[in-house]
Each structure stands twice: as structure tokens, then as C-alpha cells.
Specification:
single chain; 425 residues; alpha/beta; six-stranded mixed beta sheet; binds pyridoxal-5'-phosphate
Length: 425
């Protein structure tokens, strides 16, 4: 058997695959003590949300027609029409976005949405010539979500930019988009799209409204889609601690997922953008998967229709993670020596603390290995700097991602061991 070039690339080595396999092995190998899992991106199991799922499942099971619809009927490739209508109404009433069901398409999770979107825009275009020969997606602010890194079917489809680093206080920093650098791309005919996660996985950065507006201007000027990954943000699960606004323009494409709302197992996300993009995603779904899973839409549909999904996001999920963020930061303040050369990224959202050990003698990969031996799993930061031309930028080896979604005591103990590993004492 011979795999194709694309097949070889997709089935071969990738950062995310290596890391997941390594984390899995570390979990299986530890027999005496379960490792402290400060690495994964799984959402927390919030008791109040688990009660909502239980209630919704009972309602679905108790109504034969609803049950049939959820399990025994193919939805159209675009998604359940009622669910699409409810989401469009929610976006109109909450944010004033001028959208209808024609602006939305369902996908099997955000990860698949990005695979479809990147390959819709990146790569060679049919109007070949020098300009059509290559089409690239720009990530204007690294570090970014590792899950994007290997998704483009055409090699070299991604280009990325380093941020500027702003020290915001003692032991605190924030990444900012380097617009001087971005403006120099104005004449690059290979650009086909821009992508940001907001909040950003891994750093918890929330791109400011000013930065979003400038990206939107750049996108409008060059007629590029501005793809915004709301996996942790609007309108659900709403794990956003900074006060910022959602942006809608003719160019924006938002991806919204039910995963961090608490339903990663249902694999459900929504792409919201111009009608031709939503229609393209629906066609791609028909080709690659025929239809989407119905269950996530069946569970969440009525919550979207009633607006309850917003209340749960604001009153249950956001405060839950905010309290966890505070406890994790308290543990950092308690265990990290004040004189140590460390900085924590301002955590404006999501479920991670992003730690920068300035001028670290060991790479983040070496620190990850040392911590793994001590029973603490984190994610080494170097995975999140794909697409950068400057491979020697020391910063990319000086950062660690710590998840605070797990049990508070586990997070605190993990942070104590990290402090000890890094700075002794
Ligand atoms: N985008 C970001 C920033 C993520 O962190 C994740 C998952 O962790 C995804 C997208 C994909 O999530 P899902 O496919 O479960 O919607």
C-alpha cells in the first residue's frame, strides 16, 4: 500500500499527536500516584452544568418524536434548521448582528470547522498565475492554538507574526499585535485570510477591541476573511474576564463551539459568517461527512432558543473559571519566589496560565520532561509557535502552559511542584 502525499502528511508525525501520545503514556505509566493533570484542554465538570445535561437528556428521552429526531434522522449538512434559526435570533438579539440561518453552518466541533475553513481559503487558487500559486493564512499573533498547526492540506500555507511583549506589572505581561510588522504585509498577494483565537489558547490573551478593529480594517482593505475562534469566548461558554466586545463585519467568520460549554463529546460547533462561506462549509460537510451529529444540537437547541445558554455562560461557567483563575494565581504568588525571573500572561479568559521563565537555562521541553518525572503534566510552550520564520527566538522555548480547569487542590499542588522544580526552595 502506498499513502498519498496528503495522506502521509495527515497520518504522520505532528506536534499535537506526539504530545497527546506522550501525555497518554505518562498517565498510563504512573501506577502509585495519578499525575497532576495541568496539561489538558478538557473543560471542567461543573456540577450545575451536569444537572442541565441530565435534565435535557430526560426531556429528550421522554418525547419519542424528539428522540427520533436526535438519533434516527439525518440532519441537512448545514445543521438542524430550528437550531440554526435559534442561534441566528440569539446573535441578533444579544449582539445586534444582522444574521439569519443562511449565515450559519454546523460542523463536528471547532477543530473540523478550522480544517474546512483553512482549506477553503489556503492553497492554490484556480486563477493560477504568480498570485494564485500560493495562498496563505496569517496568524498575526503567536503563540496560537497548536491544533491549527498541521491542518492545511497544502504545505507552507501558514504565516505567523511575533507579538510585542508588554510588561504590565510585577511578574505580569501581555502580548500585543505588532501592527508595524503587519502593515508590511499589505503588499503580500499570497494572503487569503487572518485567524485569531479570542481568548487565545495557550496564553489566555484577549485581543483588545482596538486590535480587533485594526485587524478588521486590514481585512476589509485587502478583502480577506477575519476568522475568529471563540472556543472559550462568545457567546458560549463565555469564559472571558476582560471587558471587550464581539465584532461583526462583512469579513468576519466566527467559530463557536459547544465543547467548553461542557459538551466536547457531542462534537458540535457553528461557523457564522457570510452566506457564501456558510454554504461552502455545508457543502464540504456533505462531501466529508454527509451530515453532522444531531445530539449536541438536540441538547443545546432549546437552551439557545430560550437564551438560557447565555445565562448559564454568564452566571455559572464564567464565575466558576474566574474563581479557579484566582486560586491558581494565588498559588503562583505564594510558591514562586518574588525575586525569580518569571512572568504570567494576563489571563483575560480561557482556562490556562501561560508562564514565561525569562532567560531560562532549560527549554520548555526539558522542563516538561523534568515535571513529568515528578508527576506533574503541563504543556511545553514551544508547540504553540508554528509558522514563525524566526526559529531562533528564545522566547518560544521559555514558556509553559498550565491548565487550571482541574480540581483546585490538584492545581495548587502542581503549582507548588512547578515552583520547586524551577526555582528550588
Ligand atoms: N480552538 C481552540 C482555541 C481550542 O482550544 C480548541 C480545543 O481545545 C478548539 C478550537 C477545538 O475544540 P472543539 O473541536 O472541541 O470545538
Amino acid at each position: 500500500m502506498r499513502f498519498s502525499e496528503i495522506g502521509t502528511r495527515l497520518s504522520g508525525q505532528s506536534g499535537i499527536n506526539d504530545l497527546m501520545a506522550d501525555l497518554g503514556q505518562a498517565l498510563a505509566a504512573s501506577t502509585d500516584h495519578a499525575p497532576l493533570m495541568l496539561g489538558g484542554g478538557n473543560p471542567a465538570h461543573i456540577p450545575a452544568m451536569e444537572r442541565v445535561w441530565e435534565e435535557r437528556m430526560k426531556e429528550i428521552i421522554s418525547n419519542p418524536l424528539v428522540l427520533r429526531r436526535a438519533l434516527a434522522i439525518y440532519d441537512p449538512p448545514r445543521g438542524n434548521p430550528e437550531c440554526l434559526k435559534s442561534l441566528a435570533e440569539l446573535l441578533r438579539s444579544e449582539f445586534g448582528w444582522p444574521v439569519g440561518p443562511e449565515n450559519i453552518a454546523v460542523t463536528p466541533g471547532g477543530q473540523t470547522a478550522f480544517f474546512l475553513l483553512f482549506n477553503l481559503f489556503a492553497g492554490r487558487t484556480s486563477d493560477a498565475g504568480a498570485e494564485g500559486a500560493k495562498g496563505r493564512i496569517l496568524f498575526p499573533l503567536m503563540p496560537e492554538y497548536i491544533g491549527y498547526a498541521d491542518q492545511a492540506l497544502t504545505p507552507d500555507s501558514f504565516t505567523a507574526r511575533k507579538p510585542t511583549i508588554q510588561i504590565t506589572g510585577p511578574h505580569r505581561f501581555k502580548y500585543r499585535i505588532d501592527f508595524d510588522h503587519l502593515d508590511r504585509l499589505s503588499h503580500d498577494p499570497s494572503l487569503r485570510g487572518i485567524c485569531v483565537s479570542r481568548p487565545t489558547n495557550p496564553s489566555g490573551n484577549v485581543i483588545t477591541d482596538g486590535e480587533m478593529n485594526r485587524l478588521a480594517e486590514f481585512a476589509a482593505l485587502h478583502d480577506l476573511p477575519l476568522i475568529v475562534d471563540n472556543a472559550y469566548g462568545w457567546p458560549f461558554p463565555g469564559i472571558l474576564f476582560d471587558e471587550v466586545s464581539p465584532l461583526w463585519t462583512d469579513q468576519t467568520i466566527h467559530v463557536m463551539s459547544l465543547s467548553k460549554f461542557g459538551l466536547p463529546g457531542t462534537r458540535t460547533a457553528f461557523v457564522v459568517g457570510p452566506p457564501e462561506v456558510a454554504a461552502a462549509i455545508a457543502s464540504m460537510t456533505a462531501i466529508t461527512g454527509l451530515a453532522n451529529g444531531n445530539l449536541g444540537q438536540a441538547i443545546a437547541g432549546p437552551l439557545i432558543q430560550s437564551g438560557e445558554i447565555m445565562r448559564l455562560s454568564k452566571e455559572v461557567i464564567r464565575p466558576y473559571y474566574l474563581a479557579k483563575r484566582e486560586k491558581a494565581l494565588t498559588a503562583i504568588n505564594e510558591f514562586f519566589p518574588d525575586e525569580a525571573p518569571y512572568f504570567v500572561h494576563e489571563c483575560g479568559g480561557a482556562m490556562f496560565l501561560w508562564l514565561w521563565i525569562k532567560d531560562s537555562k532549560r527549554s520548555s521541553r526539558e522542563i516538561y520532561e523534568a515535571l513529568k518525572k515528578r508527576g506533574v503534566l503541563i504543556v511545553p510552550g514551544e508547540y504553540f509557535f508554528f509558522g514563525l520564520e524566526d526559529k531562533d527566538w528564545p522566547h518560544r522555548h521559555e514558556c509553559l502552559r498550565i491548565s487550571f480547569a482541574m480540581d483546585d487542590e490538584e492545581v495548587r499542588e502542581g503549582i507548588r511542584i512547578i515552583a520547586n522544580e524551577l526555582f528550588g526552595g
